[in-house]
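quick one, 434 residues, struct below
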Amino acid sequence: MEESWKDPVVARREAIAGLTTFLTMSYIVVANPLILGQAGLEVSAVVTATVLAAALGSILMGLVGRLPYALAPGMGLNAFFTYDLVLRHKVTPEQALGLVTWSGILFVILSATPLRREVARAIPQHLRGAVGAGIGLFLAFIGLKSAGLIVDHPATLVSLGTLDRRHVIFLVGLLVAAGLYRQRKPYAFLVAIVGATALAFVLGRPEHLKPHEWASMPAQLSSPPDLSLLLRADLSGAVSSALLAPLVTLFFTDLFDSLSTFLGVSEAAGLVDEQGEPLGLDRALAVDALATLGSGLVGTSPATTYIESTAGIEAGGRTGLTAVVAGLAFLPLMFFSPLVGIVPAFATAPVLVLVGALMTRGFSGERPFEEQLPAFATLALIPLTFSITTGILWGLILHPICFLMARREREVRPMGWVLLVVSVTLLIAEKGVS
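---
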């Protein structure tokens, strides 16, 4: 442990910061099981897996990375797990967990080589922003669908749903979450989910909705941790040429997410060197890679570093003790998985939409067409094709081609051309499993 942790003043400051970070990201214990539950995984088991991934990843970041960054299964990555891997590509939940595990293994291997930085630098900033914004739109789309605001339509594919009490609850939840977030309250998302659930009990279920689509009290409020997903990952079943494109997409999405978060959080904390590079980046990426690997083994989508760590940093967190405290705070939640069953899908919809909106912040400003077109293709194709894979691959294909057309080919890194060839190959391969 760091020497400064022995100072009572420092320890108190870091403990408060860790609890602040925990409160800010604790909503994932509700949101993640509800999303992965749609993939066929038992909600109670996903609660346990989510808590384990968040606790172990955060504690590891604190002890090994020695940084105040907390981890948990990532929003966007969990949507990819459910809607892209399981529902779109028709892989079993166990195979999807196997893909998460293999992605973690690749991440760990890459983190041990200089190739990691080269791959990261080959992805231009405008494409990274587009990936985040595209996933943000994807999350917002899922949230609007969960709230019943978007429904199937035979002519236009999607349409505005018939307004009912869910939409009132959604609007109230969204305003509460946005208002508290604007005031920098660490419990903004959690209060929005709890408040929306409570309002559902007050207003009552509309007749056209089934009981399981509404809020309902469980038979018990606590239960022993459900460890049924532990080591359930199907590693051999995930080894298939048809699943190569989703595996690579999962790997790159996790890598982009980690790098973007480290850059943003380190700048907010002032944890950068003279060149503006995040301090301890190698250690942090290594821990993030191990967290992804561990997520697949305990039974959830990939854990990643949370941008919500900035809340703890603003509260004074500067050492790994902040992450350790945040991780420990997750552990008691393993015993309250029945409470997640109270929450209907539409109660988490405001958080999905708000998180999606926040993820589009990196995609703004006027750009020349050779940057705008690949970025827009990534941004638009992720939600409109309901596939994160398709959006990222087309962005990586269009980037070097557009730069070549604009006579800026010298600005494309050699790895960028390699990724062009890989993306074309994966896109062709993916067509066979679409």
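DSSP finds 17 helices and four strands in the chain.
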